[in-house]
Amino acid sequence: MPEDPVQNIHTAAQAIFDKKGINILALDVKGISSLTDYVLIAEGSVDRHVVAMAKEVIDTLKKQGEKPLYVEGLQSGDWIVIDYLDYMIHIFMPGLRDKYQLEELFRDGKIVELKLKVNE
C-alpha cells in the first residue's frame, strides 16, 4: 500500500542523499500550488549524476507501490521532474536551479524537515 506523501518525500530525499545529491529542500505547498501538495528540490553535479538520482528515486518509490504519473527530462539530464500528483520532485544540474528559482515561486511554502541518515 502506498505511503503518505510526506513519508514518500522523506524516502525520495534519502535516495537522493544516498546518491550524493546536494542542496536538498522539501516544501509543503498546499494552498500555494494547484499542481501538487509537496515539492522536493535537489541538485546533482553533472547530467549523468542527475539522471542516476532520478532513477534511484523512481526505483525506490516503486518498491513502495508508488509509480510516477509523469517523468520529464531523463534524456537531457539537466532538469528532471518526477510527478507523483501529491508531490513533485525536481532534480537540477548546477546553475539551472538558480535560473528557474523554484524556491522563489514557492517562497510561502513551509519547509518540511528532512532527517537524512548517512549510510556507510
Poorly predicted runs of 5 or more residues: none
Neighbour order of strands in the largest sheet: 3-4-5-2-1-6
What would you say the CATH architecture is?
2-Layer Sandwich
The CATH C-level name is Alpha Beta
What value does the Rg take, in angstroms? 13 Å
Content of β-strand: 15-25%
CATH superfamily: Beta Polymerase, domain 2
Our count of helices gives 4
Mean pLDDT reading: 94
Shape from CA axes?
globular
Strand pairing plus helix content: what structural class?
alpha+beta
Alpha carbon gap, first and last residue: 29 Å
Order of helices and strands: HEEHEEEHHE
Helicity range:
25-40%
The tally of structural domains comes to: 1
CATH fold assignment: Beta Polymerase, domain 2
Q: How many beta-strand runs? A: 6
How would you describe what is shown here?
- This protein is of the alpha+beta class.
- The protein has a single domain (5-111), classed as Beta Polymerase, domain 2, CATH 3.30.460.10.
- Helix content is 32%, strand content 24%.
- Strand 3 and strand 4 (79-83) form a beta hairpin.
- It is globular, with a radius of gyration of 13 Å.
- The mean pLDDT is 94.
